[in-house]
Design brief:
Elements: H1 3-9, E1 28-33, H2 37-52, E2 56-61, H3 63-72, E3 79-82, H4 85-92, E4 99-105, E5 108-112, H5 117-123, H6 128-133, E6 140-143, H7 149-165, H8 170-177, E7 179-181, H9 189-193, E8 198-202, H10 203-209, E9 213-215, H11 228-231, E10 235-237, E11 243-245, E12 250-255, H12 262-274, H13 277-281, E13 290-293, H14 297-300
Parallel strand pairs: 1-2, 1-3, 6-7, 6-8
Antiparallel strand pairs: 3-12, 4-12, 4-13, 5-8, 5-9, 10-11
Helix pairs in contact: 3-4, 7-8
Length: 301
């Protein structure tokens, strides 16, 4: 089985998809946003191992789920990677991390299956919100908004569309019929297998799996930093009471204060920042690197 197929079809236990094993087996141990599973496991991780000589081990979950694991002591990675820069800063500063580096961005849209009614209508130019509103129950998947920024960004997009286009009941209607996938790396498995017609996904995830992608307009795809004030007009409150406001998609990374192998963590972060061209090749966009907090010189340098 190809690694990409494994990532998209395996069950919950397979969120550990590593070259050297699950967290806790030496080298650098990375706990990352699930949307970067293929990017790190097939791209950056193997290259890091080959060039630096330090074993790479990664686990991938929705960022909010990963942060809960750190807070509860269930996971103690050397490196944490978030798909929402503000979420990491709100939840992990100052007890678990004291700095971070923003290194990539992404765009929200609709990944869809070839030959599906949803795909045909999107390709014909029909308004995306009308296409999704007409979909049958279970045809469209989103990530669980209580566990993953991609999930609450889907809700944010629904809210912006409802307000902008006067779609009374659009948000409630969509949340009543979408399938909420709890394991972000598995979000596109149903689209690939033909069991679902579409999923609200990041652009890089569609690139990773070779699935057609309909990018949403800039005012609700969360890719434009200049629209941060517009995005901030919507919010979602998770089941634990965290209020996630609309923000541009910004991935950030840090070495945890309790890392068992901080030196390997610094090596990995430095390697990632110095080799971001690999990220662009896998569908991500590259804003200027932005450091935040008390960044070690070994990383800043």
């Amino acid at each position: 089985m190809e690694r990409r197929e494994f990532l998209s079809t395996a069950g919950a236990a397979a969120t550990c998809t590593t070259l050297t094993g699950c967290l806790g087996r030496g080298g650098v141990r990375v706990l990352s946003a699930g949307s970067l599973a293929v990017t790190l496991d097939e791209g950056v991780g193997p290259a890091f191992e080959d060039e630096v000589g330090t074993p790479y081990s990664g686990e991938y979950y929705g960022t909010n789920a990963a942060i809960r694991m750190i807070e509860s002591g269930q996971k103690n990675p050397d490196v944490v990677v978030s798909a929402d820069a503000e979420l990491l800063r709100d939840r992990l500063y100052d007890d678990y991390v004291v700095w971070d580096a923003v290194f990539a961005s992404n765009s929200v849209g609709i990944a869809y299956g070839d030959g599906t009614e949803i795909g045909d209508r999107l390709e014909a130019g029909d308004a995306w919100y009308e296409v999704l509103r007409d979909a049958d129950e279970g045809d469209v998947a989103i990530s669980d908004p209580d566990l993953d920024p991609l999930g609450y960004r889907a809700v944010h997009a629904f809210k912006i569309a409802e307000e902008k286009h006067g779609l009374d009941g659009f948000v409630d209607g969509m949340l009543a019929k979408v399938y909420q996938e709890p394991e972000e790396p598995q979000l596109l498995a149903g689209v690939r297998s033909g069991n679902r017609a579409a999923a609200v996904a990041y652009k890089n995830m569609a690139v990773d799996h070779g699935i057609p992608f309909h990018e949403l307009p800039d005012d609700l795809n969360f890719s434009d930093p200049d629209r941060a004030d517009e995005y901030a007009g919507v919010s979602y409150t998770t089941d634990e009471g965290y209020v996630a406001r609309g923000t541009p998609v910004l991935y950030n990374i840090s070495v945890t204060e309790s890392a068992d192998n901080a030196d390997a963590g610094y090596e990995f972060v430095s390697y990632l920042l110095e080799n971001r061209n690999m990220l662009a090749e896998m569908g991500l966009t590259l804003p200027d690197v932005e450091f935040h907090g008390d960044v070690p010189e070994v990383v800043r340098g």
